[in-house]
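Note to self: keep these together.
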Amino acid sequence: MLLALHKPFGVVSQFLPKGGWRTLAEFGLPPHVHPAGRLDADSEGLLLLTDDGRLQHRLSDPRYEHPKTYWAQVEGAPTDADLEPLRRGIPIQDYVSRPCGARVLEPSPTMLPRDPPIRVRKSIPDAWIELVLSEGRNRQVRRMTAAVGFPTLRLVRVAIGELRIDGLAPGQWREVPAPR
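Structure:
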């Protein structure tokens, strides 16, 4: 069994309580499923869960390079040229990110409001960009956007491979076919 969950902001990618954060236990998921990968508590979007250990390994092991698509609301108004360093790969801490797909989303996607809302500065615009990564290191998207001068305000994973969160509201889940 493979499930797609639209993980809300403020929820950790585990079932056991941790430091006062909300957990996956509150979403009525079937027993014996485990996350195949993770999303930080301050990120939202597609989280896959399965009861199949082999499938969980195949989905979460970086060797399989499943493309992950993120929409990031960033502070500022990046141009296509501003995102070019992301397409080539950039130094982040002690490694260089792999090249990724990066584009400005115009028009901006329609997203449900986040609770709590992001910070808004009247004098600084914001924009949405799409990043498609084949790796997934800790807080990588946030570090990449900050490295090119556009800090992430809100981060939503919208797809893993061909699997998308389309039609799922935060906290909703459905069974999906396993990717090939």
